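Re: that chain you flagged

S.,

Sorry for the slow reply, it's been a week of failed gels. I finally had a moment to sit down with the sequence you sent. For the record, here it is as I used it:
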Amino acid sequence: RGQPWSCSAHAKDIWTSADWDLAGKLSSARWTVTCTKTGFDHLKKLANGNSSVHLSYHGLDLDRFGSFSAARKQHDGSAQGGPVIILSVGRAVAKKGYDTLLGALALLPGDLDWRFEHIGGGEELERLKALAKRLGLDGRISWKGALAQKEVLEHYRRADIFALACRITADGDRDGLPNVLVEAASQRLACVSTDISGVPELLSS
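Prediction finished late last night. Pasting the structure tokens below so you have them in one place:
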């Protein structure tokens, strides 16, 4: 108590805390940094000129995620072209919206050949597997579990589409700008996501 302090604020900190609580902390902090323009704008409004709030996007380790220049093999989902590989990387938790994504996959045309690969663990994984089975998708889905970053990079480079159905949960929790979207985009992988939080700061419609 009484010592100068500063902080970084992520999406969960910003959107699951009461505005009065955030405003009090902002007024006493020497400076605050956050990683999306959406979060930055919200904090600036709450700070009301009494705190220094800064925007600093997460960086990418280019030694690990260097530019991918190899030609991608195009899969169009036809019998001749091979299955379209749809990849998602993320924890199986509510804010990632994987139940919504599975529902969307179930609406794809029956004559389209596709496969969905999920990388990550999470508390909802078994429920999602059961949902995939009820939707008749289990034969098209590979649940990879948690993988080392080197293996994840290989999947980015093999896939055709990266999909992430981020959403806002009942308590306000949400992603800011998911690092996996930045990673996938760095490998020239087409990305599809939802129009919430910081996602539109990277992806355009």
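What I noticed first: The helical segments are 11-15, 19-28, 37-47, 98-105, 125-134, 149-158, 179-186.

Talk soon,
D.
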